[in-house]
Amino acid sequence: MRNNSVIGWLLAAPLSLVLLVFLVAPIVMIVVVSFWGATEWSIYPAFQFDNYAFLLTSDVTYRVFLNTLKYAAITWACTLLIGFTVAYYLAFHIRSLTWQVALFLLCTIPFLTSNIIRMISWIPFLGRNGIANSTLISLGVIDEPLEWLLFSDFSVILAFVHLYTLFMVVPIFNTMMRIDKSLIEAAADAGASGWQTLRHVIIPLTKPGIMIGTIFVVALVMGDFITVRFMSGSQSANVGRMIQNDIGLLQYPSAAATAVILLVTVLLLIGTLLRFVDIRKEL
Amino acid sequence: MTTISKVRYSRRSLLKAGGAAVAAAALPAPMVWGQETKNITLRQFGTGVSNLNEVAEKVKEDLGFTLEMTALDSDSVTQRAATQPDSFDIADIEYWICKKVWPTGNLQAMDTSKIANYDKIVGTFRSGKLTPESVIAQGTAPHTVGFTTGADGKEFVQEESGWMTLIPTIYNADTLGIRPDLIGRPISNWSELLNPEFKGKASILDISSIGIMDMAMVVESMGEYKYPDKGNMTKEEIDLTLGIFTEAKQNGQFRAFWKSFDESVNLMASGEVVIQSMWSPAITAVRSQGIPCVYQPLEEGYRSWGGGIGLSASLSGMELDAAYEYINWYLSGWVGGFLMRQGYYSAVPETSKNFMSEDEWGFWFEGKPAAGDITNPFGQVMEKAGAVRDGGSFYDRMGAVACWNAVMDENQYMVRKWNEFIAA
Fold it and tell me: How far is residue A117's CA from residue B283's CA, in Å, rounded to a whole number?
């Protein structure tokens, strides 16, 4: 018995150590620094609430957080819709496993390039004289180039959806593949229409996958700064850019405070989501 | 000119060179000399503008010692100069950065009597006046932070004291870049940046310390306000300036903001933007794609910037001598010619003249029409025969400086307001 517990501790030790050093310690450090003070070129240890006071009383902070949440919500809805459809098609309409795997791998091919490149390649495409506008003009759909295609919320969200849909497809596809096909047959035998089967059988059983995809997408969008910077032409702000600006100006404590608030927001969000679905039970 | 000493060794070079140097010291002089300089490494860091590998290669060739270059953005440069004095020997920084960094005591003053070409340095960096008639521009003008009281001076002095904080190396006059083909009419005022005619086709750079100066030029040109000192705004003035630009942003005046050189080139070349704040080499980059782009001289004048080399306080002995040797070499013309052929100016233009062809000198410095094709130092054709430099001659351009890049007393407030502007 005693031997077992020692072995248990030993087995858990490497992972705990890794998490302690690479996850817990940095977060603790960020929290500590968020109470420090800063001059224009240095930071000094202190215990003051200045950084938080400034953040929480500035309406810019609220606007920026709202904007970040807006990006997250719209991106989530789009990736869920597309991701679910793709996964559904792969899981239920493709009959042979070989084809399923082949098509699934096909989905991942764009992801073999850097995500910065995938994002930036939208810029010449969407630009005022870009392919999208010149095609639409030559087709006679529009007379003037569409300005809102690039450097707008539209282009930011488009890039997000393009970059992160796969993170929705993978977990949803994975859970769908585990659904016992006989359940669907049973539903059909009991007279359920395709829509009813989807609504009452497939969606409830796919929830853990949806939830995992949601966590991926929300966390990625909330933490992003580079997509927003490039695709909005630096005209929109999200929390990541706020942190980046602070770091650029050597205001590490203020950046740390913003990071802490962002972390808390994301944890609350995910905590709420997890109340709806018990991922561990259903995996 | 100073020469490398034959016997003095700093602790660092001893450690680095180890026994070899000690053994070499015992050998006949010429060999000692070679051995010594070969073992010296000077670590220089600065912004990308003048941290060029070609310079390091030429230093190795002409002076024998090694120059290690590190290029960083201006925020990192400031931080490093202010907080890590032992991480560099030579800091290649801008004058406004010097204003922030000098009080930390991490740089040492330079004895101008050891600078061979000191007397030939352009007046802007000494008396502050390019020509005796010049009016000193607003902002952190280089001469205001260019001199100190003595070898250990902590305070800036306004006269030529014989002790320089930075040796000027590179500078230029910045203005707005435009696409003449897409605008189709003359542009002659900064206020055009906010002209509704260019709604959705304007841009400004998202680097607060420089952007705020461009904004101030625009606000003054619009007749909204006359700043007592654009380089040192009060909180109210900052609010006013950013207020005007926030309103313009919300009305959709700007297509995008840019932070890096490449972004500004792409915005202009693709036609997304037709008028924006720009840097001189970016204009050239757009033109080299065959796209018309003009660095438009404006009635209100230029926003200027200047950089210089500072020496780390911890530099001593043989390395210090080598650093002086380097500075003297820097001002002796080769680097100046190299930089001037890219559109920048050298602190001692007359020495650079020896390293430029008559046509190049005429085009870049005197504002004369090019007689033949003008190529940059890398051999690319930049201008065809007959072209004239935008803004004309050196005296026309540097004589029309309205303000210098600056650091304000209310810098932190300005930065916060700038972030609000971006988020607005």
Answer: 25
CATH of the domain at B314: 3.40.190.10
Rounded distance between C-alpha atoms, residue A64 and residue A85, angstroms:
32
Amino acid B237: pLDDT:
96
CA angle B104, B109, B111 (to 5 degrees): 175
Whole-angstrom distance, CA of residue B95 vs CA of residue B129: 16
Kindly report the backbone phi and psi dihedral angles of residue B68, in degrees, each rounded to the nearest multiple of 5, phi listed first.
-95, 125
Q: Do B154 and B186 share a domain, yes or no?
A: no
Q: How far is CA B288 from the centre of its chain?
A: 23
A22-51 pLDDT, tens digit each: 999 999 999 999 999 887 667 889 899 988
Please indicate, yes or no, whether residues B49 and B144 belong to a single structural domain of this protein: yes
- So what CATH class is A49-282? mainly alpha
Last residue of a domain, one of B319, B339, B354: B354
- pLDDT tens, A129-178? 889 999 999 998 888 888 889 999 999 999 999 999 999 999 999 999 98
CA distance A66 to A46: 30
Taking CB atoms and an 8 Å limit, are B256 and A235 in contact across chains? yes
Alpha carbon distance A179, A176 (integer Å)? 5
Q: At B329, which amino acid appears?
A: W
Burial class, B345, CB count within 10 angstroms (exposed 0-12 / middle 13-18 / buried 19+): buried
B359 lies in a domain?
no
Q: Is A242 in the B-facing interface, judged by CB distances under 8 Å? A: yes
For A17, counting Cβ atoms within 10 Å of its Cβ (0-12 exposed, 13-18 middle, 19+ buried), the class is exposed
Domains identified in chain B, total number: 2
Query: What ipTM, to 2 d.p.?
Result: 0.79
| 8 Å CB contact of B412 and A242 | no
3-state secondary structure of B138: strand
Using a CB–CB cutoff of 8 Å, tell me whether A249 touches chain B. yes
Instruction: Quote the CA–CA distance of B336 and B29 in Å, as a whole number.
Output: 33
- Which residue segment(s) compose the domain that B224 sits in? 180-300+407-423
What's the full length of chain A, in residues?
Answer: 283
Minimal Cα distance from B250: which residue of A?
Answer: A235
Which candidate from B101, B258, B412 shows the least CB-CB separation from A234?
B258
Asked if A248 and B83 come within 8 Å (Cβ–Cβ), the reply is: no
In this prediction, residue A60 carries a pLDDT of: 86
Which token pair is B275? 């008028």
Q: Do B422 and A123 touch (CB under 8 A)?
A: no
- B414: nearest CA partner in chain A: A249
Chain B positions in Cβ-Cβ contact with residue A64 (cut-off 8 Å): 423
Q: Are residues B184 and B90 in the same domain?
A: no
Q: Which two tokens stand for residue A101?
A: 């795997």
Same domain, B105 and B219: no
B25 and B167 in a single domain? The answer is: yes
* Chain A residues within an 8 Å CB radius of B257: 233-235
Residues in chain A with CB shorter than 8 Å from the CB of B254 are 233, 235
**Residue labelled with tokens 């032992």:** B86
Q: What is the pLDDT of residue A108?
A: 86
